[in-house]
Each structure stands twice: as C-alpha cells, then as structure tokens.
C-alpha cells in the first residue's frame, strides 16, 4: 500500500506529470524511497524546481486514501509500476506511458507477445458484429490475446469471442477497475477475470468520465502489435485508437464497409490513408506469418455406456485404477474391458502402468 500511496502522492505535486514522475523514478527508484523524505538525492535532480522538491518532501495523504485502500482490499486489486518487471514492455515504449496500472485478474508476459486490439463502434451493424465474432474466434485459435475496452458493440463482441473460445482477453477501462462500465457488461467482466484481466491507469473508485476514455485508448493500442478497426465514424474512439497505433508505430487493420453506412466511414477512411485491408482473420495472420494449427479432430460419438465410463475417468484425473472403475460402474471385468478398448480405439483414453487409464481430452 505504501508503494501505491507514494506514486499517487508524487503525481499530486503541481508540475509533476506522468513523464516527469517516470523520469524521476527511473533516476531515484520507486517513489516510496524519496517521497516525504529528507534525503539529499532530490537536490541533485536538475529537472526539478526548488518548489517541486519542497512539495515532494512534504506531501499529505492522497484524497480519499482510506476509500482507495478499502476498494483495493475488497476487489483484490493488484498494482504494477513502470519499474516492475511484469509491467508490459510494449507499453513502456509508447509516448506518455502510464506510470502505473491497477488490475484485477491475471496478466501474463505471453499476453503481449501476440496481442491484438479489436475496437469499433458501440452501434455496430449486423455485418460488423458477425465479422468481429469470426475474426476474434480465429485470432484466439492462433494464440492471440484480444485487447479491447469493454464498451458496448464491437468491444463487447471481441471480448466475448475470446472468452467463449477459451482465449485470453484484457479489458482496458476508462474507470477504476472496481467500476464495471457499462454496468450491463458485469457478467462479461466476470468471464474476463477467469482468463484475463481488467486494467486501468485510473485510481480505484474513479467514475466514468467522458475524457477518460480517449486517454485510455493509447493503452489499448500500446499493448498490442496492431489494432483492428471494425466499424466507426471518423470521430469515433476507434479512429482515435487507430491514430494512437500509428503514432506508436503499430499496425492498423481496417474492415472495409458499405460507403452508405456511417459505421463504415472510419475504416474506409483509414484504408485510403494506407491501413491494411482485412476481410478475414487470415489477412492478419498472414501479416505476422502465422498459420492456424490444424483443428483438433471432432470429438467422437460415444454411446451411453462409453459416455458413463468416460465421465468417471474425467472426474478422477489424472488416472483411475481398473478395479476402481469396476466398483464405480458396476460392470463385469469382461464388459468393462470391452468398453475401455472401444474408448481407446476412439482415442478418448489410454492405458497407463499399474492397470490404470487416463483421459486424452
């Protein structure tokens, strides 16, 4: 908590913005080491005024600090600063990176080795919704982490396509990570937490202010190899994400659309500016020279008795003894042996040492 408090205190000093706070931390270490301290190190920093030095040496607790602490405890909120090893490297290299991030759920380094942003309008057409769903599914199959903003429309579909297909997804929020916005996406947020994270640079308890959302878009693009713009007008948040992506030297992919629809205005404009045209996930995969692995073989049809045995084997992972299966099923030795052989031929199970069997799915 002291580490978090020190960062918040440092950024509350007049004249200390993100860039100066990060530069100072990279020089002196975590703010907890020098905030409210009489150490002489601050006097050696040539980019600080005497007033700023005095303020850093004497800062009161952050506004609503007790409330922030309670929210962190209540929601299990985690914190990483730009000095931490698990702070995303891709984000460190953008213009104006956030000095710290709050998050719920899990963040893995592998998330950012193959991450793609999928964003678009809140008022998506059926064409946009269907395409976002298909693209998201294929990207997840290829091992991509889907990054979006938890908004209505394309964002929601992008996150859902990831969780539905067992993929990783990260939602970058314009509120504190304790505040699910829009409220209708609470269930989706819960699904995201099972295999991903809710992320925000805003303090716990922060409400949905309209100026927060354009700011957070630089994080969505900054965490990603590229941004996929599904639909949106030229003034939409999706187009702002594309602009950030271009400024960050990231790829921009755009889905072409009907020139008579407002939702297609933004992507079509980006295509004229040189964005990569996509009509399927394959266009994105080819850009990164990724081939989809062959799909797993179809799950074999099982009869009632085979299904019964297989479910028992699944419930006793990693393996179960033959004798225990006899007790659980009530079948004779001969009948059980015949059924196990059938399951083995269907590549559903395999025999292991000690007269045991284990599932293969």
General description of the model:
This protein is α/β, with parallel strands linked by helices and 361 residues long. The chain has three domains: 62 residues; 187 residues, Rossmann fold, CATH 3.40.50.450; 56 residues, Arc Repressor Mutant, subunit A, CATH 1.10.10. It is built from 15 helices and twelve strands. The strands form two sheets. Strands 1-2-6-5-4-3-7-8-9 form a nine-stranded mixed β-sheet, with helices on both faces. A three-stranded antiparallel β-sheet has the order 10-12-11.
Provide the fold topology:
Layout: H1 2-11, H2 18-28, H3 50-57, H4 65-75, E1 78-81, H5 89-92, E2 100-105, E3 115-119, H6 126-141, E4 145-148, H7 154-164, E5 169-172, H8 186-194, E6 196-200, H9 212-222, E7 226-229, H10 237-247, E8 251-254, H11 265-273, E9 276-277, H12 281-287, H13 304-314, E10 320-321, H14 322-329, H15 333-345, E11 349-352, E12 356-359
Parallel strand pairs: 3-4, 3-7, 4-5, 5-6, 7-8, 8-9
Antiparallel strand pairs: 1-2, 2-6, 10-12, 11-12
């Amino acid at each position: 908590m002291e580490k978090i408090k020190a960062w918040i205190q440092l950024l509350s000093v007049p004249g200390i913005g993100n860039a100066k706070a990060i530069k100072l931390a990279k020089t002196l270490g975590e703010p907890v080491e020098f905030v409210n301290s009489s150490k002489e190190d601050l006097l050696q920093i040539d980019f600080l005024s005497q007033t700023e030095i005095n303020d850093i040496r004497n800062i009161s607790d952050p506004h609503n600090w007790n409330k922030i602490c309670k929210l962190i405890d209540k929601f299990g909120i985690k914190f990483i600063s730009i000095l931490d090893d698990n702070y995303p490297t891709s984000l460190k290299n953008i213009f104006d990176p956030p000095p710290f991030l709050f998050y719920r759920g899990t963040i893995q380094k592998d998330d950012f080795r193959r991450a793609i942003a999928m964003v678009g309008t809140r008022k998506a057409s059926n064409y946009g919704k269907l395409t976002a769903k298909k693209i998201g599914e294929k990207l997840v199959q290829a091992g991509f982490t889907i990054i979006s903003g938890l908004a209505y429309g394309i964002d929601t579909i992008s996150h859902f396509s990831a969780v539905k297909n067992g993929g990783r997804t990260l939602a970058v929020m314009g509120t504190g990570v304790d505040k699910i916005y829009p409220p209708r996406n609470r269930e989706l947020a819960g699904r995201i937490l099972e295999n991903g994270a809710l992320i925000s640079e805003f303090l716990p308890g922060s409400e949905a202010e309209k100026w927060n959302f354009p700011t957070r878009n630089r994080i969505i693009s900054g965490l990603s190899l590229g941004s996929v713009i599904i639909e949106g007008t030229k003034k939409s948040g999706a187009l702002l994400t594309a602009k950030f992506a271009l400024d960050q030297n990231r790829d921009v992919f755009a889905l072409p659309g009907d020139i008579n629809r407002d939702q297609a205005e933004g992507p079509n404009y980006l295509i004229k500016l040189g964005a990569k045209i996509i009509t399927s996930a394959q266009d994105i995969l080819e850009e990164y020279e990724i081939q989809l692995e062959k799909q797993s073989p179809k799950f074999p049809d099982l009869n009632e008795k085979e299904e019964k045995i297989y479910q028992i084997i699944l419930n006793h992972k990693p393996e179960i003894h033959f004798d225990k299966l006899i007790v659980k099923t009530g079948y004779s030795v001969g009948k059980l042996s015949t059924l196990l052989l059938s399951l083995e031929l269907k590549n559903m199970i395999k025999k292991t040492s000690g007269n045991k069997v284990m599932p293969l799915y």
